[in-house]
UniProtKB/TrEMBL annotation:
<dbReference type="GO" id="GO:0006355">
    <property type="term" value="P:regulation of DNA-templated transcription"/>
</dbReference>
<protein>
    <submittedName>
        <fullName>MerR family transcriptional regulator</fullName>
    </submittedName>
</protein>
<dbReference type="InterPro" id="IPR009061">
    <property type="entry name" value="DNA-bd_dom_put_sf"/>
</dbReference>
<feature type="domain" description="HTH merR-type">
    <location>
        <begin position="1"/>
        <end position="76"/>
    </location>
</feature>
<dbReference type="GO" id="GO:0003677">
    <property type="term" value="F:DNA binding"/>
</dbReference>
<dbReference type="Pfam" id="PF13411">
    <property type="entry name" value="MerR_1"/>
</dbReference>
<dbReference type="InterPro" id="IPR000551">
    <property type="entry name" value="MerR-type_HTH_dom"/>
</dbReference>
Amino acid sequence: MPIRQVIELVASEFPSVTQSKLRLLETHGIVCPARCANNGYRAYSLADVERIRYALRQQRDSYLPLAKIGQNLALLDCGEEPVPLEPTARMVVSDGEVAVPKTKRVTVRQIMDYTSVSSETLEKMVVAKLIAPDLSGRFSVRAVAVVRAVMQLEAVGIEPRNLRSAKSAANSAVDLIDKVVGPARAKNTAVSKDRARQDAHDLATILASLIEALTMQGVEEIS
């Protein structure tokens, strides 16, 4: 079957899957579709579709890198069972979603519990300066959201070191916000500080929306 039909078959479970994503899976050896003799187009089998579903589920549910997914598939091809992952994200709320810490600072152990991130991947994020510990070794609670996002990107082949530009963009946004709210914060009164804090949060939301819109605009231009 052609690649567009594969996308239609998996779209109900994975609505965001694209041709580029399927080609990425092929590049990593997850699937090896045949080629049509007359036009050279990819021709996927039902077995290929099941391998694609397996890979996408492993990325979505377990944040496994494609290399590990490929190893698991190789074991399955040989009739062996992959070693199950030890669950580490133990803190959940009643609806099954991983909880958000209620403290302002979190430890490495807490980040690992909330996100299931490995110590190796977490170290990569620190080296890339995506997250940074304070003098006591604790992180901002926002680091939990950063780690979750970076893990999702790493699952599709984007390494933490390749995200330094995103951190630079965030730093530039913070500088802009600081210039706007700095005068109010400098008044050093409770009211002015509260107003500066609220304005900073509002501006951060607006700038995040702008970056999202600009990114989607760029994606549409190349797709």
